[in-house]
Design goal:
mainly alpha, 0% strand
């Protein structure tokens, strides 16, 4: 078995090799190290091992995103925001229309019921000839209110529970949609930081 060679100055040249790997050696020390490495096999083996380890730890070159990546992402985000605004606007118009339609239908139904109650024979008292236009209008409004009250009372007696259930479901549905629209409205900040 061969005897392993040792270097009497290994500590000194170990420091020079470390500085050389970091690129911190001046010209005189670099020449001194190179001359020693030519004559000392032990330091030469240590130098090669240090270079291999240093090569493993060299940072890889940073690779950036492809050209136009940021622009494509910004366009995608803008498309998503536009789609969200369009969906929100459509749902807001739809639920607003449903709410307005419900109020309008209810008002029209009450007006029609009042007119029918006022014009039906026997249910409305006769209006005296010669009364003023104001008393006719007041009397008509009173009769319309009375007719609407009778109609609603009869309607509630016959179809009260199913009608109330249906109205309750409709109102709950509209309230749910309005709540969802309020929470998902465009421009509201989200948890992921994207507005």
């Amino acid at each position: 078995m061969g005897k392993k060679e040792t270097c009497n100055h290994s500590e000194e040249f170990g420091e020079l090799m470390s500085l050389a790997l970091d690129g911190l050696l001046d010209g005189a020390d670099e020449q001194k190290l190179n001359e020693h490495l030519i004559t000392c096999a032990a330091c030469q083996a240590e130098w090669e091992a240090m270079q291999q380890v240093a090569a493993l730890f060299e940072p890889a070159e940073m690779v950036g995103p492809p050209l136009g990546f940021a622009i494509r992402i910004e366009r995608q985000l803008a498309k998503q925001a536009k789609k969200r605004r369009r969906t929100f606007g459509g749902l807001a118009v739809l639920t607003g229309s449903l709410s307005l339609a419900g109020v309008t239908i209810t008002a029209l139904a009450l007006i029609i019921v009042g007119i029918l109650a006022w014009s039906s024979p026997g249910s409305a008292p006769t209006v005296q000839q010669g009364s003023s236009a104001v008393s006719n209008i007041a009397s008509g409004l009173g009769l319309m209110g009375k007719g609407a009250t009778l109609f609603l009372k009869d309607l509630l007696l016959r179809y009260g529970p199913p009608l109330l259930l249906l109205v309750g479901i409709g109102l709950a549905f509209l309230a749910g949609i309005w709540t969802w629209l309020y929470l998902k409205r465009p421009g509201r900040s989200h948890h992921n930081g994207i507005a």
